[in-house]
Design brief:
alpha+beta; 2 domains; 230 residues; globular; Arc Repressor Mutant, subunit A
């Protein structure tokens, strides 16, 4: 589980919280579907993130939640501030920041906003973003992202096992970490930013305790005693 303020680059791999993924996906969507209103103000971005249609899951993010996610995304070079007006506005830099072609960025954006989908569903849902020639074209870009080498950050998507009663397999993005393929959902629950923050602090404390124990063992070795003797 990632905290709401993660190291957005971990071990050379892009890692987003669900909140950051929603913010980035929303900016990517609005840049293509409502270019006249883009870049987005913080309030417009919040409305886009929380809209009830074309979102899975539906979220209820506050402006502080989104501002925190924007700070993380900016530090990773995925979002930029646009100060050309009285109100600060934000625009994405996802394609260049992630290092993928336009078609792959479009597919990632849809997966971030709507969750796992089949290649056919992606082709239909991306129609306002980019017109793919056919389903095989969509599959080609998905497979390319799935086979992405570790030296480039590793796979960006994964093909999920076929759900009983369905004909096609769905695809999911990996920008928020590994997927529980038995159920086809992100292994991270979509927790509130507060819960995400607590979980992040717990993980940090566990890491610090681990370092302290390593120090204790080293001191015991130097003194010729066993930790249990302390």
């Amino acid at each position: 589980m990632q905290s709401s303020t993660p190291d957005i680059e971990q071990a050379g791999r892009l890692l987003l919280t669900p909140t950051a993924a929603r913010v980035l996906g929303t900016l990517m969507e609005k840049a293509r579907t409502v270019p006249g209103s883009y870049p987005l103000s913080l309030n417009s971005l919040m409305l886009g993130c929380n809209q009830k249609s074309s979102r899975d899951p539906v979220m209820e993010l506050t402006e502080p939640d989104i501002a925190e996610a924007l700070a993380d995304l900016q530090s990773a070079g995925l979002v930029r501030e646009n100060k050309g007006s009285r109100v600060v506005r934000f625009e994405h830099n996802a394609q260049r920041g992630i290092g993928v072609p336009e078609q792959s960025a479009v597919l990632l954006g849809l997966l971030m906003l709507r969750g796992p989908q089949t290649a056919a569903e992606l082709r239909l849902n991306t129609d306002r973003w980019y017109k793919f020639a056919d389903v095989s074209s969509v599959e080609g870009f998905l497979e390319e992202m799935q086979d992405r080498q570790d030296d480039r950050g590793g796979p960006l998507v994964v093909k999920l096992p076929r759900v009983p009663g369905t004909r096609e397999q769905r695809w999911a993005h990996l920008l928020c970490g590994p997927i529980d393929q038995t159920v086809g959902t992100a292994s991270q629950s979509i927790a509130s930013p507060h819960v995400q923050g607590l979980q992040g602090r717990v993980a940090q404390l566990e890491a610090e305790v681990s370092k302290l124990w390593a120090t204790v063992h080293q001191l015991c070795a130097d003194l010729g005693v066993k930790p249990a003797d302390l």
